[in-house]
Structures are given as C-alpha cells and as structure tokens.
Amino acid sequence: MTQQAEPDSIPDGQSAASGRAPAGPSAQAGAASSPGPAEPASGNPAEPGPAEPGATGPAASPGAAGPGRADGFGAAFCASMATLCAEFVVAATAGVLVLLGREHDGLPTAPLMAAAVGLGALLLTVLISGFVTAAGVMPALALARRAARRAGREGSGGRGWTAGAVPVVAAAAVAVFGAVAALGSLSLARPLSYLLWWASLTVALLPPALVARAAARRVREGRMGSVARRVTRDGAVVWLAVGAIGALVYGTGLADVYHPPRLHKSDIAGVWSDGRNGSVTLEKGGRAVAEGLDNFDWDGMGKPRARDCDGAGTWSPLKDGGKIVGVSVQIEACEFRKNWSVSGTTKEPRLFHEIGKQGSGKRYVLTKVAGKK
Predict the structure, then answer these.
(1) Which keywords belong to this entry (predicted)?
(2) Domains of the chain, first to last
(3) Which residues of the chain have pLDDT under 50?
C-alpha cells in the first residue's frame, strides 16, 4: 500500500534539489547550446565593416549617374522648347509693334479673329519649337558631349563645347534645307543668303542650347528646380515689358499707327508711273490709257515675267464700307486685268499689286506723278 506524503511534509532542501537540473553531461551540453549575448565581430564595435562594391550611401558622389538616375534628356528638351517659344513670342510682339507704325496691309481688329489668330500662332509656335529642338538643339548637345569626350574633358561640362557645336549644326541645317530648296526651284540662292541664314540660325539656337545644357546638368546633379518654368516666367516678364513699352510709345503719340490714305475718286484720277518708263493715265470719266505698263504673268518655272502693255481701257474704284481701298484697271488690248491696292500717304499715294506667287511680298508699285485736270 502506497503512502502519500503531504506537500508540506517535504523538506525545503529536497524540493529545491528536485527542481534543479541534474549536473550531468546532458546538462552541460544544454548550457553550452543556450544562446547568450552576441559578441561583436571585431574588436572595435564602432568601426563599420568595408562597404560592398554595389552599395550606395552618403559617401556616393552626387553627380554620379546610377542605374536609376535620369540623364536629363526630358528636362533639356522642355527647357529648349520654352526658350524657343519665349524667343518667338517676344520677337513677334516687337515685330507687330514696329509693323503698326509702318505701311502694312492690315491686321485683324475683331476680338474673336484676333484671339483665333493669336491662339493659332501660339500652337504653331509650340510645334515649331519642338521640331527645332529635335532637329537642332539636341543634336548640338550630343555633338558637344562627344567632342568633349574625345578631348578628355567629358566631366568639365563647359559652355564652350555647346557654343562651338551650335554653329556646326546650324551650318548642316542650312546645307540640307538649302539643297532641298535648290532642288525645288532648280536654282541656287546667292551665297550671301546662305551666310545670313546660317548666322540667324546660330543666333536663334544658341540660347536654347545653353539653357537645355543647364537643365540637363541640373537633373544629373540631383538639384531641385525646373529650368523650363524659370524660362517661361522670365519670358513672360520680358513679353509684358515689350508690350508695355509699345503701348507707351503709341499711347503718348511718340509714334502713330499707320492707316492707308483716304482718297476720293478725284484724287485717284491722274498719271501713275512705275519709274521705269511705264505708266497709266486714269481719267476722271473712267477711261484708262496704258503706256509701257508691265503686265506680269507666269513663266514655265513659276516666276513672274514682265510684258509691256499699251492700249486703252477702263478703271473703277474698289470700295469697302464706303471707303476707296483700291482701283480696278482693265486694258483689253493686252489682256490686262488687275486690282490695285491703295497705300502710301495722303501726300504721296501709291498703287500696288502683288506679282509672282501669292504671299511672296513682291509688288509692282505705281506712284502718282501728275493730276489730270
């Protein structure tokens, strides 16, 4: 019969001995395998280990381009487009202000028409700036980088390489487009024309190329800020300044806006000469007499060809809103039918019509030399 002992009857020493792990080989093995505090790998815990070859850290150079770092192409492209747009808008505004004081065929005055023309011109400017950037500015930057790399100055990033590449790209562009134009017209332009086109294109491409280079370098170096936004802001300030100066000049009367002369039928009657032994006499009764008047027509190459016209015919004023804006002259003997526009001033009126292709800007001009009494 088993005798059970009460818990309180067991001595404290025996209870502690029974709860202690036996000191044997297994106990020693367990003690050895139990985890303890980790020892430092080296004698100096504060000294970091050697960096791995592919690791990036604060010691990495900010200008070094890693696998995920942008090369700045997009920033350069946008900055170049912004610069070209600013150049065109400022130049166009200045040109319009100058044109207002000179003889011109007229500008749109209706608000809707002016807004439509302005919006269309702005969209066309954006498209042209993108094309010029792709065809001229970016090749200039690529040429500058390649030249610097071959010269062992790839890391210098000097503006001189870009400034030197722009004239080369401009010369190539003039050569290509000049060759295409020569093939289309089957004739070469004057050498001075090519030189002027090259100089103008170089001057136009140099600012966007330098700005695009600065934008790309800023992105590669990881600096904040957008060069395109800065160019847009500064361009808007310059545009407003040019407009304010123009408004001040015309508003204070320092310059007058040009208006064609207001002529009556009696003012048109008289002798009109081209200064080259060609003239037409417009009589008050509506009769016209031509003597050696040039009758321009088209030749086989699409160029205007002059042919003398002699004979009698008729003329009549052309009106717009009750105002005489031109003269229609018909000489049946030489099949001469032309509408002449009024230009010049009240003291020195002129009649003209375009010759050659429409919109070419070439004019055949007659000046009044005597009145017909």
Answers:
(1) Membrane, Transmembrane, Transmembrane helix
(2) 73-251 (no CATH), 265-371 (2.40.128)
(3) 1-69, 372-373
